Amino acid sequence: MKKQKSTDFNKPLTFKFGLKDGLPIGLGYLSVAFAFGVKAVVAGVPWFMALFISMTNLTSAGQLAGLTVITTLGTFLEIAVTQLVINSRYFLMSITLSQKMDDNFSFANRFFYSAFVTDEIFAVASSKKLPINKKYFLGLVILPYVGWSLGTLLGATAGSILPPIITNSLNIALYAMFIAIIVPPSTKQLGVALAVLMSAGISCALYFIPVFSVLKDGIKIVISALITACLMAFLFPIKKEGDSDAVR
Question: Of 48, 47, 50, 46, whose CA–CA distance to 64 is shortest?
């Protein structure tokens, strides 16, 4: 009888295995963070401040929105509300992951590692059948964090020395990334497609209708996200187990 081969889902969760799982995430973050670094420097943010932002945030959508608020001289309240709305999904991700942690994770450990939870890290960690231990999770988050920080540093440095024609081209890379993220699920799920179109429509209305010109860009982002999220949650609730009427 042949011995059944072990899969990545039931292998021992060691530090080395965590590094292996985190490597492709880190490489992906390197290119995206490079684009953020370029955009930040072009917008007038010093390179060291762009690096500091990435080292203390680790969220592409949140950092891009925060950069918009900063460059338009928004208030601290605008930044706080914008980040709260855009990054609220991490609350649910962290709560879900906390149920998979082993008993060696103290409250301080959970508090510390929650800062490194991203969409990709959550997807990889939550797919494991075994309880997540500290060594594996540390290995999983190291390379994504290094890739995100290093990418920002390289992008900020390049943005400071490259000619405008090149930096302006790299400046759209983050938007291209978001398009690449939303197009595939939009072609498969009606709810996602409608959410994308609705948020785009609301954003255009807030930008072009004169009466809304008094609103800061950060507030417009919050309004667009909240209206879209509330309407889509009502129209397309997440399908529960055993519920055949809900639409994903």
Answer: 50
22 part of a folded domain:
yes
Nearest to 25 by CA among 123, 163, 166: 123
Of 171, 203, 221, the last residue of a domain is: 171
* Per-residue model confidence as pLDDT tens digits over 5-27: 445 555 678 899 999 999 999 99
Position 177 in a domain: no
To which residue do tokens 């948020």 refer?
199
Residues 24 and 72 reside in one and the same domain: yes
Contact 73, 44 (CB under 8 A): no
The type of residue at 97 is L
103-116: average pLDDT = 87
Same domain, 209 and 117: no
Is the overall model pTM greater than 0.90, yes or no?
no
Q: What is the residue range of 68's domain? A: 15-171
**The two three-digit tokens of residue 119, written as one number:** 């969409």
CA distance 178 to 86: 14
Measured between its terminal Cα atoms, the distance across the chain in Å is: 43
Query: How is residue 105 written in tokens?
Result: 């994770």
Mean pLDDT for the chain overall: 82
Per residue in 41-81, pLDDT tens?
988 899 999 999 999 988 888 888 888 888 888 888 888 88
Distance CA 235, CA 246 (A): 9
